[in-house]
Amino acid sequence: MSRLRTLPKARDRISFLYFEHCRIEQDEQAIAVFKGKSKFFVPCAAISTLLLGPGTSITHAAIKTLSNNTCEVQWVGEDLLRFYASGRSGSGNAKRIIHQATLWADSIQRLKVVRRMYLFRFDDPLSDDLTLQQIRGHEGVRVRTLYQHWSRQTGVEWNGRDYKQQDWNAADPINQALSIANACLYAVCQAALHSVGYSPALGFIHTGKPLSFVYDVADMYKAKTTIPAAFEAVSETYFNLDTLVREKCRERFNEQRLMHRLVQDVDRMLGFGDDEETEPICFLWDDVLESVEGGKNWAEE
Fold first, then answer.
1. CB count, 10 Å around CB of 158?
2. What are the pLDDT digits (tens) for 45-63?
C-alpha cells in the first residue's frame, strides 16, 4: 500500500475525472478503462477524485488500487448533476472537519461565519452594525428581487416560490425547474465538500439536516447559476424540463468555474488557510495540554 508521503500532493493532481458507460479494471498500480473497443490507462496517483456516471461498472481490485492511492471514488448522476454515494474521503487528514466543528460549536465564531456567508452573496458591502436579523431581511429582499428580475428578463410568469415535495405535479413549471436546478447544485457542492473532508451536516446558517452545510454553500451560488438557468429553460419550453435544466446548469457551472472555486471560497468563509496535504498525525486528547502525540508508549512519562 502506498504511503501518503510517497504520493503526489493534492495540488499536483488532476482534480477529477468523469466516466460513464464503460468498464473499469485494475492494471498493476493503474486502472484500465474499457469503452467500446477502446482501452486506456489512468494512473490512480495522478487524480484526486474519480466520478462514476451511469452505465459504469468497476471491479473490486480497481477500487482497492484507487483506495491505496488515496483517490476518492464517487457515484454520481449523468454529468455529475446528482450525488449518490462516495467511497473514502479524498482528504488526507481531518484538519478541515476539526476546524469546521470548532467554529460550529462556538456561538461567537459561528456568528462570524454566518455573517461572512451572507455578505458573500451581496455585490455591495453591508454596514457592519447590521444585526443578523437585519441581514437576513436584506437577503430576503435580494432573493425576491432576483426572481422578479429574471421573470422580466425571460418573460416567465412568477408568482412566488411554491412547491410541495409530496405533490410534484402541483408546482408550476418555473418552480419545478428551480427544484431540478437546485438538486444539481446540491450534488456539486456535496461532492466538493466531501472530497476535501468537510462535514455536509455541520451547517452554520441551516441546521438540523444531514446536508445543512451543503445548503449553506449552495445558497452562495444560486443567484448566478440555478436561478438564471431555471428561468432560461422555462422560457424556451415547458417540455422535457429535466434535461434542459441540467444542460443549462452545466453551462452556468462551467462559466462560473464552480468546481475550481468552491473549496477556495468555503475555506475563505471558514478562515481555513492551510490546505497542505500532509501525513495524518494521530494525537491523544489531553485535559491539560489539549493534545499529546499518539502512537507512543507513555508508560515511562
1. 18
2. 777 788 899 999 999 999 9
Sheet strands (E) in the chain: 14-19, 22-27, 30-35, 38-43, 47-52, 56-58, 72-76, 83-86, 283-286, 290-293
Contact 80, 171 (CB under 8 A): no
Neighbours of 179 (CB within 10 A): 17
Q: Which three cell numbers stand for residue 277?
A: 496535504
**Burial of 107: CB neighbours in 10 Å, binned 0-12, 13-18, 19+:** exposed
Residue 199's CB is within 10 A of a number of other CB atoms, namely: 17
- What is d(CA 76, CA 65) in angstroms, rounded to the nearest whole number? 20
Q: What is the pLDDT of residues 166-184, one digit of tens each?
A: 787 788 999 999 999 999 9
Q: What are phi and psi of 202, to 5 degrees?
A: -85, 75
pTM for the whole thing?
A: 0.76
